[in-house]
Amino acid sequence: MVSATVSFIIFTLTYTCITHPVEADEFATKLEKYIQNLVDCKNLTGLAVTVVKWNETIYQGGFGYQTLEEKQPVTEKTLFNVGSNTKAFTSTLAADAVGRGKLQWDEPLRTVLGKDFQLQDEFRTSEATIRDLLAHKLGMPNYWGVTTAVMNFTREEIVKRFRYFPVKYGFREWFLYSNYPFVLAAATIEKATGERWEEAMYNRIYKPLGMTGARIAATMTDDDWSKTAWSYTWINNTYVKNPEKTNIRTVVEIDPAGGVFINAEDMAKWIKFHLRGGKDEKGSQLLNSAALQETYKPMMPSLSGRRIYKPKYPVDNFNPTYAMGWRNGLYRGKKPWLNETTSCDPSPWSRRRRRKRRSPINKRSQPGTTSQPNSTEYLGDYFHPGFGKLTVFLDENENLKFKFGLLLHGLLLSTSTPDTFYQQLDFPLVFRFHAPGSDFVFIRNKQGVVVGTRVFYLEYSLPPVL
After folding, report:
1. Pairing label, strands 260-262, 215-216
2. 16 shares its domain with 64
3. pLDDT tens for residues 217-234?
């Protein structure tokens, strides 16, 4: 049984200005003591740190292990998938295209992608720009489950199907974080420049900056994996190594949103590039400074409706707005009270009432047996115009199961609510939590016949609608 799903492999990027002169050796000693204590008390398996002050790397180091089985230490050359930090790379490629006159921040996407390109409605289609995509202005949810399923669509096919991706809010109405707009942004950059996103990452960022160890998910080799930190899930009081290589397909499909693999050494080069306003270490201007600066400007409030913000720690770490691939926040303003003790336990500053841990099971339903009476009426292929086919079937043991995409499949457990099932995922996504609100619900017509299913914020119909 999965008791917790946690990403224990963490890449921490620290930019700091030291307010009091400290000898390098003394600083390194204090920093390492602080981080090692944090690794121990948080029970982290591995972590890498790079610290940049102005234009100088003043510390790089690794803690813990790449894998617990081999006990290979994390170093400044260990690769980590930095997830959504990738979005800043894609916005930087957009700035590069703007700086070269290949693209404009505020020209409609249709101007670049052609008259056949469509979004969810005519207003979005005629007005949406790459700025809207990079600032999460489409009102589009993240589609938990769809991303991990791996639809196996090409980037071009995703662009064609984008009109069918449901939205939750009005256009430019509300900040809603999503990965797929960055896939569409990459396709737009590709169309404008004639260069694939993957090629541009290497040709316009990695190579000019000397980031020789950096990779993207789509190009990971066996040698790269041997240098990569793996994530673990806490199952039955022990760490279980997650099948990273098998699950890499979930990242490849959204590479422009989450596909960067990078080490601490190269991350320092990436930081310095931005601190220098788009110049390389020799002072050559690689990217138009004005275009790059545009990516840092606040575009949308990102507090998700919270009217009052109370930090967990007694230091400012407040991100009220989102730019393009970057979060904007407040830094400093208070005495940094974090130390070996307070970093592990924020009390007494965290006086808020502790929330009860939310059950991964929707309150409306509790898992029970593997089937309901007449479960065969649920069988069939269900279709969504944006995300394709979802199949419900009986396995050799007459258990009701589902399959969606290349990787997402599992058992459907009946609940106390008719036509509602709880998902118990199979390998390789068994470590994923069942997300609240993502029960498998079958839909009936007025005659009581099953005609569709609702799952992952989406409705699938039976028979096909494609």
Report:
1. antiparallel
2. yes
3. 999 999 999 999 999 887
